[in-house]
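Chain particulars:
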Amino acid sequence: MFMKSLQRNSCPATHPDLNHAALSSPANQGFHLNTEVCRRRVCSESYRGRVCSESYRGHVCSVSYRGHVCSESYRGHVCSESYRGHVCSESYRGHVCSESYRGHVCSESYRGRVCSESYRGRVCSESYRGHVCSENYRGHICSESYRGRVCSESYRGRVCSESYRGRVCSESYRGRVCSESYRGRVCSESYRGHVCSENYRGHVCSESYRGRVCSENYRGHVCSESYRGRVCSESYRGHV
């Protein structure tokens, strides 16, 4: 079934046991570079429990990742098990490191963190679930109780209490976290580095939101080709 599906997609067959050295040889490069189809492979429901061939360098689609797209651009990226249909590499369990976050180290304890390139050397502990520390807040501690807070640019070095719920993040609040009260908002392209929480149903993550994390609840969203390294949840069947 697996090989038949590959043939339907017009991608040359490759033995699953080939190692990376073999795959990097000129003879095997065509498997993931030869056609557009191979660049954006769709793991359809028929691929349940399969291992995406080694052309997807080090990626594995587990049983729960039904119907998702593992594109060539996800090299070395990690999507947690809860992000059904994602491309996971065993070592980065639960992390989302986009292509732009080169040089970062996401250890196993940093589950679900987003560390941007500017945060080099930061430590986001496990208790800081879902928090984003912008580059202005260097060395600050965002505790677990501050979930979904909005800290304005002027509050450099401040700790924002939970009373800031429901604030509006204007264009100047780059790197902010939009709290859960902002349901139905559209994050404009000025909010680079934002995390849209699972309550933001119906949002549109435009091309400018590179490195975003779209939660499982963002059903109906379109992650375009430009979203390299994105996490597309189970509901995004057939999207690239």
Notes: The beta strands are 40-42, 69-71. Residues 1-240 have pLDDT under 50 and may be disordered. The two ends are 23 Å apart (CA to CA).
